Amino acid sequence: MALAPGLRLLFLCAAVLVVVHQLPGCARASDPDILTDFVVPRDLLADPSQINGTFFTYTRLVSGNAGDPAKFTATKATAAEFPALLGQSVSFATLVFGAGTVNPPHIHPRASELLLVVQGALFVGLVDAARNGTLHTATLQAGDMFVFPKGMVHFQSNNGTDVARAFSAFGSASPGTISLPTELFETGIDDAVLEKSFHTDQATVDALKHDLQQPPAQNSAPVALVGARLAAVMLCVGTAFSLVL
Fold it and tell me: What percent of the chain is predicted at pLDDT more than 90?
């Protein structure tokens, strides 16, 4: 049966959208819906025998993150590391927080995050831009969970003296991470713009840039100092978001 011209155009547009979603390097706001149970990576299309139990298994999530007690470290299992996640709209990460370390203010543009603390305690927070930049915080113990909605500025910090560990689940195979300190102070934004945006001076901007370039030493005072400065940056950015919205 022949399709009406309008329906033919509709199907053509739908086909184009499906193809565009599969293009490498295509920017996406969220995971595309797939028309199959799972996506076979292009490099395996010629050899279907490789689609077996090993393809659906990932073993590096925990073994790949022993955790440096002097640092914050994260190990991801996203579509980039675990191709079987393509099209599944899920991913995972392990987070290890050395004493006094912080996962700086950041956002995940394509996914919400569900954090589960499994060892120690974490102080967490998110900026609610829809409510005038209100900062929602909580101190989580082992077994506690906290959700960070998609696109909201948030952070985690270990204010204790022992290592803390957590798992994070994401509602996307490629959640993305935009670290605000890095994006603001290490991408070449003019210092004058930063000074005016944060109502501060050149010395403070220089200090922030210097701190970001220096890896924190174990049990050193600068770790806490950097965390405090980054928290201040997060509050400024949250306020800016609320003004924009």
Answer: 51
